[in-house]
Amino acid sequence: MTSEPPVIEMSAGQELSLASDERPLTKVRLGLGWDKERTAGAIGTGAPDIDLDASVVQFTGDQLFDLAFYNNLQTRDGSIVHLGDNQTGRGDGDDEVITVDLSRVYAKVDAIVLMVSSYQGHTLEWINRAYVRLVDDADELEGERELARFTLTAGVPTTGMVMAKLTRDPEHPGQWRLHAIGEGIRATIPTDAVNALRLFL
After folding, report:
1. C-alpha span between 152 and 11 (Å, rounded)
2. What are the pLDDT tens digits along the chain (201 aa)?
3. Phi, psi at residue 191, to the nearest 5°?
4. Distance between CA atoms of 83 and 68, rounded to whole angstroms?
5. What domains lie within the chain, and their CATH numbers?
């Protein structure tokens, strides 16, 4: 019986090749989670429920190609599927989940950006321990295998955040790389964030 490899804890600026046991990963799941910061707000009265939204935005060059979010749950090529909106962040585990079939991504798409935004305009100082994790989704019968996790221990004074991006690996055709970013942007809905996202391509 072989033991599972340890989960890679990523930090901002790190990259990870999406290959496992000498094979490129094609089906992955991106899980997003966050906790409400209980002590945030004036005189420590507690924070409101924060409606964070996970979105995935596809680019070809610096041009928007397609996106998946709470109001458009699947990209046109069917490669990215958003599994539904969580409006409070309550409960354990992933608050929102997005599946990505990299083998189905249109050839002209060369970058896929994962962002979160606060729909009601609360800054992300109201949340704590936001994370994105990458799970190998190739074989559901084998159970969940988490590959990497990127956690932000404190919120930021903006309404949006670029968590990570996926890019094609120039040295290995057919493979992709995960880049941890973790930088704040001004955004409440993903369609208004395109110009800000171009800075991270």
Report:
1. 9
2. 445 667 889 999 999 998 766 677 888 898 988 877 655 544 445 556 667 888 999 999 999 999 999 899 999 999 999 997 654 444 567 888 999 999 999 999 999 999 988 888 888 887 777 888 988 887 655 667 888 898 887 778 898 889 999 999 988 888 999 999 989 999 999 999 999 999 999
3. -65, -20
4. 10
5. 8-200 (2.60.60.30)
Identity (one letter) of the amino acid at 118? S
* CA gap 94, 83 in Å, rounded: 11
Residues 6+ apart with CB under 8 A from 126: 36, 37, 40, 41, 47, 48, 50, 118, 155
Report the Cα–Cα distance between both ends of the chain, in Å, rounded: 41
Distances from the Cα of 73 to the Cαs of 78, 110, 121, in angstroms? Answer: 10, 20, 22
Burial class (CB in 10 A: 0-12, 13-18, 19+), 78: exposed
| Global confidence as pTM | 0.85
Q: Which neighbouring-strand residues pair with 20?
A: 23
Q: How many CB atoms lie within 10 A of CB 173?
A: 8
| Cα 102 from Cα 118, distance rounded (Å) | 27
